[in-house]
Write a structure and sequence with these properties.
The chain contains three helices and five strands, in the order H-H-E-E-E-E-E-H. With about 90 residues, it is an alpha+beta fold. It has a three-stranded antiparallel beta sheet with strand order 1-2-5. The chain has a two-stranded antiparallel ribbon with strand order 3-4.
């Protein structure tokens, strides 16, 4: 589904306007970003959890040349799918 299709489906289901649904989704995304940045995780019940993780520096290989390179440490965001979501989809 595209964003437009998602907004329309939610608006129809909730009896709200597309603009209201769009504002709600934008607020949810902003909340997820800020909470993940601040506390390291954000849970959407029944869907999953955003988690901030630190990756250590490691050695890698350039696939074009085969040369070994140093990959620096960095912080990444991971999404872990909730068990309820897995069970309902699979």
């Amino acid at each position: 589904m595209t964003k437009s299709e998602t907004l329309q489906a939610l608006a129809d289901k909730l009896g709200m306007t597309r603009k209201q649904v769009s504002e709600m989704l934008d607020a949810l995304v902003a909340l997820a970003y800020s909470e993940t940045k601040k506390s390291g995780e954000f849970t959407i019940p029944g869907l999953g959890k955003l988690q901030k993780k630190h990756r250590e520096a490691r050695m890698g290989r350039n696939p074009a040349t085969g040369e070994q390179i140093q990959i620096p440490a960095k912080t990444v965001v991971k999404f872990r799918v909730a068990k309820a979501a897995k069970d309902s989809i699979l």
